[in-house]
Each structure stands twice: as structure tokens, then as C-alpha cells.
Amino acid sequence: MPSFFAPTRRFSLASPLLLLGLFTINLIPTADAQIGVCYGMMGNNLPPANEVIDLYKANNIKRMRLYDPNQAALNALRNSGIELILGVPNSDLQSLATNSDNARQWVQRNVLNFWPSVKIKYIAVGNEVSPVGGSSWLGQYVLPATQNIYQAIRAKNLHDQILVSTAIDMTLIGNSFPPSKGSFRNDVRAYLDPFIGYLVYAGAPLLVNVYPYFSHVGNPRDISLPYALFTSPGVMVQDGPNGYQNLFDAMLDSVHAALDNTGIGWVNVVVSESGWPSDGGATSYDNARIYLDNLIRYEGKGTPRRPWATETYIFAMFDENQKSPELEKHFGVFYPNKQKKYPFGFGGERMGIVNGDFNATISLKSDM
């Protein structure tokens, strides 16, 4: 595992608990609550990148997640003012992890050649890699690839402006109920703990993809539709002093608690994906409209555990017809012809929660 620390602050990521006591001041994020939208490109009918960036600007979308360093998109982003999560594809992880020169070249080609005219805020090194399951062989490369990218950024003294992390999904959470008892699965701790140690050192957030939709459809008996859609009439889960009226907050706070409960150090969380499909499977256009509208309105409020705005990115900009299964084709907030799928906007309005007509029975149980 390559070392990336300055000599005066060297310690082993194999022993992340050594980080305790190195940091005595935790800064509360103060970034504004403007929501972002993920720009996926798995469609053969999508508009060209320059038109997509114009669409972001026309709709007051000031943050973007890009899953790979698409050169046309990066060029179109120049001087747009749009803040960017720039992705390192999973297919690049092994190359970047095993050769620091490859990482330096990647940073030169995809970051330095565009900075500062492209406002790269985060680099997401890999997406939803798990040390167990189908992508397990990639797990060994995530931290060293991140270290090498970080080192290349740090060499240009940009490490406080461009933060390097990875994006995980909720399958790495072992216990999520109640939220305060959130913990990572035992079989992923050896993978995650060193990475959390790196995040504490680098002052970078953990990027997390949070989908109440999948929790609801996976357990509709115990997770009611109003709870998932932000439309519950009152607190659904009381967890000590914290009351939860929506599943998004409960899921997010289970991640906060899982991080805190490692004892490694304080780490901020950015919601790097959240969405609701409009078709395919057990879903509907109206549910997607209600969830996304309420997420945009609610996003600046913070959670009971961390009551400040959480930076959040909607998945996705467009329906993508080359994804599978069918459900995955319908997460867009725009159609490929650039027409809005939903009537709401992205200006960060905070006008209360939009309600729908539901017949679902509200359950007080909230297994996530």
C-alpha cells in the first residue's frame, strides 16, 4: 500500500485508530444547499455535451456529477460556474492503484488541463465498489488509487480545493435501525476502516448513494410509501431525542452513525446519488414526481443527527435507454429531447412538503 502522507504526519492506514487524537477540531460544513444532478451518458439518443451544459445552466442546476472524464463534457463545462464531482471509472482503478505515474497522468489529463475554468470540487475514485460480491476483486484497488490521485492533486497544492473520495452504496451498512445504532457490516470493515482513516486525514467527505425507493420496494410492509416520499404526517421513528419523519433522513443518519461508531474520526457525508424511477417495476410517475420535488425542497434542512444542509445529487439528468434492467432506464428528470419530465424546478425553493393521495398504511417500524 503506497504511502501518501507528509513526513510530519505519517502513520499507517492499516491502523486507522491511530487517527484518534490527531484531530481535535471538527468543522461543520457551511456549503449552501443547492442541489446537483448526475449526468449519466448510457443512452444512444442523448444531446451533445455542450447542449447538456446549457440545459444545466438554463435550469439553475449548479452542481453536476460526471461518472468519467468525458472530454467533451469537461470542455463544455469551462467557465460555466457548475461545481463538479468528477468520477474515476471502476475500470481505471487497477491501473491507477498500481502505478503512481498513471495517476499523475490521469490528473494532468482530466483535472489540471481543465482547472480552474472547470470547478472540480470532488474526485470520486470508483463507484459502489464492495469488497464482497461481484466487484470484490476491485476492492483492493480503491484506497491505493485514491492515495495516488490524492498525491498527484497534493503535488499541485490543490488538495484543499479538490477533495478525493469514493462513492459507496447502502449495502455496506449492516445495521440501520434505529439510525443511532448504524454500523457497517463486519465483512467490509477491513476495507472501509482504512479508507475512513484516509478521509479523516484528507478532510474529504464520504460520498454515499442513498435510495429510499429501493428500501421501500424491498420491504413495503414495514416501510410505508409516505415515509419514503417525505409525506408522512408526523414522526414515524423516535430514536432517543431524534424523531424521523422520512426515510431519507433515517438512512443518512444511519451512515453518519456508522462513521461515528467506528471511532476513527469525524467524516462529512455527501449524498452522491438519490432518485426515484418514473416507470418500470413497482413505481409510478406520480411517486417519482413527489419524491424528487420533496427532495429538492427538503435538501437544505439537514438531518436530526447533523442538522445542517447535506449536499445532494439527484440521479439522473436523463432517461438512459442503454441501461438495464428496464427500471434503470427511467431515473431521468429530463427526457433525452431535453424536455422536463416533471413540473418542478431546481432553484432550491423551500416551500413545504408536497403531498399526494395515499392509501398506504403507515408503519411505525422502519427497517432500512
Automatic annotation (TrEMBL):
Residues 1-33 form the signal peptide. Its EC number is 3.2.1.39. SUPFAM superfamilies: (Trans)glycosidases (SSF51445). GO terms for molecular function: glucan endo-1,3-beta-D-glucosidase activity. InterPro entries: GH (IPR017853), Glyco_hydro_17 (IPR000490), Glyco_hydro_17_plant (IPR044965). The keyword Signal applies. It is an enzyme of class 3 (hydrolase). Transmembrane segments: none annotated. Keywords: Glycosidase, Hydrolase, Signal. It comes from the Eukaryota. It catalyses: Hydrolysis of (1->3)-beta-D-glucosidic linkages in (1->3)-beta-D-glucans. GO terms for biological process: carbohydrate metabolic process. Belongs to the glycosyl hydrolase 17 family. PANTHER family: GLUCAN ENDO-1,3-BETA-GLUCOSIDASE BG1-RELATED-RELATED. This is glucan endo-1,3-beta-D-glucosidase. It comes from Medicago sativa (Alfalfa).
